[in-house]
Amino acid sequence: VCVLLGEFVAPPAERSAEDQRSLLLYHQENILGAAGVWAKDGNLFVNVKRIGQRDTARAIYLFDFDDSHHLLKVARANSAVFQRGEWTLHRLHETHLSSQGAQTKATGTASWKTLLAPNLLNLFVVDTDSLSARGLYRYIQYLRANDIDAERYVAEFWGKLIEPIAVLLMILLALPFIFGPMRSSSTGQRLMVGMLVGIGFYVFNSIFKQTGVVFGLNPILTACFPTALLALISGVAVSRIR
Fold first, then answer.
1. Which helix (DSSP H) or strand (DSSP E) does residue 109 occupy?
2. pTM
């Protein structure tokens, strides 16, 4: 149940909540703040101010660089619609830069083929903690394709895969509270100890994950070590049950 909720219920619910919040506060869909969403596709840097429903986006800025990081072109489209695997840009204005100067032209519509499909752009809106494992995997593939550091998100991805095991270990760790030495304690004491253990594991897992990113530790080790430590503690605790 936890896996299904985390994969198929929580991510779309989080995006829907962001849309509703934006609609109530700003009277428009999914406003992304003054900076909007920034993304990279090869030598092209993209800034999208707003993402709407039905695969639409508004106020798109495109900055095209060459391999030497020289700016070649700046373009702005009032809106864009994603259909059949590509964007159609509407009311496009382009400025081409060269040693001879700048040339500006306006184009009615233009097609734009890119990795940045709407489902990928939506991942930029929601915090990575609320993404599904599938969403994180797509995001990691995008980052690697553009030579962007993805180690933090790799650790998050493996953490998502390990979470069901951690839940089962928590249930296993609860057994000593029922059948072990603490069964003679009051319900309040057992509840308090159980809460402290759960909160302690959550805090340690979060801190160790961030520490691994800072010090460049293997992301699989970063994600698995707290759960492995929990498994060891659970095994020792269960073995002491008489």
1. strand 101-112
2. 0.72
